[in-house]
Amino acid sequence: NKQILLVSRPQGMPSENNFKLVEGPLSIPQEGEMLVRILYVSVDPYMRGRMNDAKSYVPPYPLNEVVNSGVVGQVVESRTSEFQTGDIVSGYLGWQTYAVAKPRQVKKVDVSLAPMTTALGVLGMPGLTAYFGLLDIGRPSQGETLVVSGAAGAVGMIVGQIGKIMGCRVVGIAGSDRKKEYLINELGFDAVINYKTAANLKNDLKEACPGGVDIYFDNVGSGISDAVLSLLNFQARIPLCGQIALYNLEKPDIGPRIQTQLLINSALMKGFIVGNYADRFHEAMPQLAQWIKDGRLKYKESIVEGFENIPKAFLGLFTGENLGKQLVKVSDL
Ligand code: NDP
Fold it and tell me: Locate the Enoyl reductase (ER) domain: which residues (predicted)?
């Protein structure tokens, strides 16, 4: 059983040296448990926060233990009546090739609905984040302008498309021309700004949002958000989803104080964690699946092959390697 451990806490940008690949003990399920062969591993930006020894909404990863993350796998031995050998399941079982799981740790993936990888993306945590953050906090309505940062990532891409379904003008901010073209040509975004090449982000945004900004779905923070917040409309809504531009900073990032922008526009900024909506996931799943079926919601995955490449795929989130949801394929079905 191959496993990847967190062996040191990153200072600033993480590196492969923070992780170690080891041959772990053989996993043997006890009565009431099952053995799962991991097929796909998810790497997600929030995992960076768990690598720090700091208080947050989830506890830090312990050192020298398997890094926990979402996975999809197949039950290869079941000692519980709730799951059968052959079932495809998803859950937080971590960076390892085999895991022992209890029934409450996993859910069955309905592969007749969509490919199993979607359980880690559009029909999993990122899709639910986009759905509830945008609809519950952003409250989009026809004709409004929605700006989304981190637009070409797992969450951002779904936010923009739901915004289009709701009748918004959708403006994305992303880090390459390839991403920009994909969002405009394949997903129907109205405009996308490449923040890495923009000479003046605020001017470009102003041009892309002639009616101002009604909703800003923030995945990124920092100077990108400062530019967007300067264009808020009266009673704008800002779902505060992520701050990836800050996750690797060693010193705090101090920009213009934004409170005045919120005050003068009677705007609402609300942080949220997708888990806050756990009792409403059952509402979102059929709707997301229906939009996919109707061709109104597309999803994109970047899949790296090979267990040993998991840390590299994780690091790539901070340099923008991924288009859509970043996954690692660990094994064939
Ligand atoms: P993504 O798939 O969007 O991957 C991360 C992307 O962020 C990269 O591809 C990169 O794209 C961009 N990025 C990385 N560093 C920077 C930077 N310094 N400045 C600007 N952009 C950067 O990840 P997710 O969709 O999974 O997550 C998006 C955000 O949502 C994250 O902040 C995450 O923490 C948050 N999140 C919050 C949840 C919640 O419950 N509140 C749940 C899930 C995610 P580019 O090429 O455009 O730079």
Answer: 15-328
ipTM attached to this prediction: 0.99
Average pLDDT, the chain: 97
242 Cβ below 6 A of ligand 1: yes
Give the tens place of pLDDT for each residue, 291-310.
Answer: 999 999 999 999 999 999 99
Under 8 Å between Cβ of 179 and 324: no
Give distance in angstroms: CA of 87 to centre of ligand 1: 31
Q: From ligand 1's centre to the CA of 2, what distance in Å?
A: 28
Q: How far apart are CA 271 and CA 248, in angstroms?
A: 20
Per residue in 155-173, pLDDT (tens digit) is 999 999 999 999 999 999 9
Domains and CATH numbers, the chain: 2-121+300-329 (3.90.180.10), 125-275 (3.40.50.720)
Considering all CA atoms of the chain, what is the largest pairwise distance in Å, rounded to the nearest integer?
A: 63
- With residue 281 as reference, give the H or E element that holds it: helix 281-293
14 and 24 in contact (C-beta within 8 Å)? Answer: no
Any atom of ligand 1 within 6 Å of the Cβ of 277:
no
Query: Distance of CA 60 to CAs 3, 46, 275, 318, Å?
Result: 18, 11, 17, 19
The CB of 273 under 6 Å from ligand 1? The reply is yes
Q: In what order do the strands lie in the sheet with 268-271?
A: 191-194, 169-174, 145-149, 213-217, 232-240, 268-271
Q: For 93-144, how does the pLDDT look when each residue is reduced to its tens digit (9 = 90+)?
A: 999 999 999 999 999 999 998 999 999 999 999 999 999 999 999 999 999 9
Instruction: State the helix-helix crossing angle for 125-132 and 281-293, rounded to 10 degrees.
Output: 100
Q: Which residue CA neighbors atom 48 of ligand 1 most closely?
A: 175
